[in-house]
Amino acid sequence: GFAAQEDTNHTVEWALFEALVKTRLIRSRQTSNYHRCGRTDKGVSAFSQTISLDVRTNLKAGKGVITPDDYVDDGRDDETNGDSEPQEINYIMILNNVLPENIRVICWTPVETDFSARFDCKSRSYKYLFPKGGLDVERMRIGCNYLLGEHDFRNFCKMDVNNGVVNYRRNILSIDLQRYSCDANCDISLGDETYWMYALTITGTAFIWHQIRCIVALLFLVGQHREEPEIIQQLLDVDKHPNKPQYCMSADFPLILFDCSYDEKDVKEWIYDTKASDQLIKHLQSLWTKQMVKTDVTKLMLNSLTNDFKSRNTSEDLSDNSSLIDTLCMGVRHKVYKPLLERPKV
Fold this sequence. Notes:
Layout: H1 12-22, E1 35-36, E2 45-46, E3 51-52, H2 76-81, H3 91-96, E4 107-108, E5 121-131, H4 137-145, E6 149-152, E7 169-181, E8 197-204, H5 211-223, H6 230-236, E9 255-262, E10 271-272, H7 274-311, H8 323-326
Parallel strand pairs: 2-9
Antiparallel strand pairs: 1-3, 4-10, 5-8, 5-9, 6-7, 7-8
Helix pairs in contact: 4-5
GO biological process, one term: mRNA pseudouridine synthesis
Keywords: Isomerase, tRNA processing
Domain Pseudouridine synthase I TruA alpha/beta: 145-263
């Protein structure tokens, strides 16, 4: 996960602050004026997590530069560099050289001293990826429409009372469910659209703990014809349904914190390092190659077994592709489905 925890060092935040202290960009987390845009749980990825903090700088003045009260300019830097401005620290390369391979700084920008990556964020976008399988995507889109706007999402999250969360009203700015890629190697004998990949993209001002994964779990039930699309509307009516029915949320690994948006007056232009970007692209290309080869090996096995199964003229029905979605649903699947509104309440 992203947030530091007392019982483990295997978090993004722990590795990040270890790198910041090691490179002497900060003295400690406690004195760094640190804010994060959001927190992602274990298993969830982030493409554009944003943090704000005070770091060491080579500059004497400019946006976000803090000059200590006891600072004395002796002019030695001016004598060394002539009249030119001092060159800023290459934060990206310094940090990426000591960070683990799966954590990378992509860009940075100076901001005003009162800026907060958390409280000044205008919107956050998440993506959840899944195969079509046997899902009725049109029914899911109907369910999505009920989520738009400001609602009380207490039936769509995991209660977080230990952290003082008592307000469950959140504003969904946009929600979109689209097929985003097609596996060109997908054999038509495997069910044509079955292996198409879809992305659910949700943008909101803020989200509650596990809100996206709960939303996806309910949309899966709608897409599987176990619930009507109107179940979303019903669960948003907390006057009629003040308590959340028992259900398992969807898996963590398809979820991505995809974008964090800020006002242009706060963040005008991100600063990149060409060499660092090139290294990251090459690293991701290597990961993609390994994963795609493994995927196609699995697909070849699947094609071969399916075609062999059909060639034996068996009467078995191969149209059941429920395992594709069941893989992304946590908990035990019962033989007899019990409607949500008839289940015990949390």
